[in-house]
Amino acid sequence: MLVMKFGGASIRDAEGLRQVAAIVAREKSPRVVVLSAVYGQTNEIREFSARLANGRSDVDGFVRAVRERHERLAQGAIDDREALARALREVDARMLTLEILLYGAAYSGELTDRTFDLVQSYGERLANPLLEGALASLGVKAKGFESDRIGIATDGVHGNATADLPATAENLKRTLVPEIQKGTVPVVTGFFGSGPDGRCTTFGRNGSDYSAAVIANALDAGVLEVWKDVDGFMTADPALVPDARPIPTLSYDEAGEIAYFGSKILHPRTIEPVRPKNITVSLRNSRAPDNTATRITAQGSGRWSEMKSVSHSSELALIKVYGAGFAYTPGVVLGISRQLFDAGIGIYSVVSSQLSLSILLHSRDCEKGAALLEKAKGAVVERVELDRDVALVNVVGDGIGGIKGLPGSVFTTVANAGVSIKQISLGGSLNAINFLVSRNELERTVRGIHDRYIVKAAG
Known about the structure:
Layout: E1 2-6, H1 14-26, E2 31-35, H2 41-52, H3 59-77, H4 81-108, H5 113-120, H6 122-137, E3 142-145, H7 147-150, H8 165-175, H9 177-181, E4 185-189, E5 192-194, E6 200-202, H10 208-218, E7 223-228, E8 249-251, H11 252-260, H12 271-274, E9 280-285, E10 294-297, E11 309-313, E12 316-322, H13 332-342, E13 347-352, E14 356-362, H14 366-374, E15 383-387, E16 391-396, H15 406-416, E17 423-425, E18 432-437, H16 442-458
Parallel strand pairs: 1-2, 1-7, 2-4, 3-4, 7-9, 8-10
Antiparallel strand pairs: 5-6, 9-10, 11-16, 12-14, 12-15, 13-14, 16-18, 17-18
């Protein structure tokens, strides 16, 4: 069994949609396709929906633009007239529901988490019939399925749900497996599922990779192919390091570290569902399907203590919370973390000392987080500082954190490049060393480490 997941960048235009259909059609083994929304569509829906609560909206204009975009894609990618007519009917029906939801939010002046999740899911719901039609044009017996209706079960947390793997497996045995046994190629919406109350819940930004892994787990797939518009993981970002090269093999742990801190190629949670079933993940390029992929397995390359990648992220910010009683006040770290969590703010890491906490979070949440913690000033919290000028460097390789002298050598290399380190996080994992630098020193840092430990090691 093969699960094939395609991201929005692969279907940004009719040519891309045709290419995705051709890739699926040439595969002859039993397979399930998991599809994201058309490139950028979910972000557009999210941003427009957020404006509704403020009373600034043109629902008619937005709905018209979304409908026309999907109609153009269908007309450009679906040659079979009957399949095209069917896809256009599906798009029209789903657009009508989306329009009703948007008008409801506009008239009420509010957008609940429950409604927001449902509205966001329409990016995937609209893309689904397009690929079904494109596959039908190539003679593939395909059928579209919406994931909340076939039993992709979640814990019900809106905006950042976690899949219920046993329940999902039971549900798919009933809804999806019989279709596969009949020779059908299911095309399943990514990104969302259904909570215990039956309501739509999403897996968070770019969560289709995770939902594809959930389906792979449920179906006991041998391989999960994640198709993007790049050749898998690289030893560094080619925009910063021109001589970066593809990484042929990674372990689950290595891939998870790179995805969590840095690369946007794979959703960080993708590894969770495949690990228990020992499912191979293959990162493929939909624009060059014959190119070499990055294979992710439990064992990886088997080369322990070898640096594989220098990834980075510049979409972070640091909140520093100062208070003299931190070391002696039980529950203070938990309390601060809980405040941020309850406000829907995710935390990447926390580093503590006797007098302060350094909280790393996404830059989009930094103003909200700092303002929230400012309100907590009192008995324990004395001062809150926000540092937006941070970039994280993440050095990854199985076992590198346990190599005597290597962390010190990395930091010496950074110092020799004339870079000052703002904060170090070491010891949380033997597979990664990460630290913060100023954004204007990021490129110099990444290039220096890549040249010293990857390029020269290969030579």
